[in-house]
Amino acid sequence: MTSPLPLVTPADCMLLLVDLQAGLAFGVSSIDRQVLRDNAVAVARTANVFKLPVVASTSASKVYSGPMMPQIQAAIPDVLPIERRNMNAWEDEAVRSAIIATGRKRLLIAGLLTEACVSFCALSAKAEGFEVSVIADACGGLTDASHQLALRRMEAAGVTMTSWIQVLLELQRDWTRHETYDGARAIVEAHAGGYGIGLAYARDMIHPS
């Protein structure tokens, strides 16, 4: 599927998950940590449903941060996180090479922390000619102010801000697209609050069991 519109499609984008680890989440105060985790799970499940290439990276997993959160790993069981030392995943040759190897020039990023590992990578990829979107509600910052300032800095550099539900709806775009309908709808029902409750209600009212 290709489109002349400036919207992401399953054929032209990939997902980078950066440092979605419990040890780092402890320091997040810009968003409720459970909401952050649930949003990140929704992002990972969305990538799985739409068959997006996924690159995941972790840092200090053995000494402080811990492994990628198990709920997120369970949504993408075949993705092995790449361990690195530096804050900027783009400066890690293994991560950067894995991203480039996908052949996709549209990069979706979610992770921790917004002020450092997310923004450094987003700004670096943008400077190298990638079209970068940050899934802002699947990112967390140390404070709300520093999170918002990091988002503003990225946006000023040409990085697009989006949300996990917008990414899912942008990839689906047509509820008659049957090959991804069940998977996308299941994610919405599980993670999209009132919208998901409404979808489940409509289904049960139209097709009661």
Automatic annotation (TrEMBL):
Which keywords label this protein?
Answer: Hydrolase
Source organism superkingdom? Bacteria
Q: Name one GO molecular function term.
A: hydrolase activity
Under the heading Gene3D superfamilies, the entry gives: Isochorismatase-like
Q: Which InterPro entries match?
A: Hydrolase_YcaC-like (IPR053152), Isochorismatase-like_dom (IPR000868), Isochorismatase-like_sf (IPR036380)
Could you tell me which residue ranges the Isochorismatase-like domain spans?
Answer: 14-165
What is the protein's name according to its record?
Hydrolase
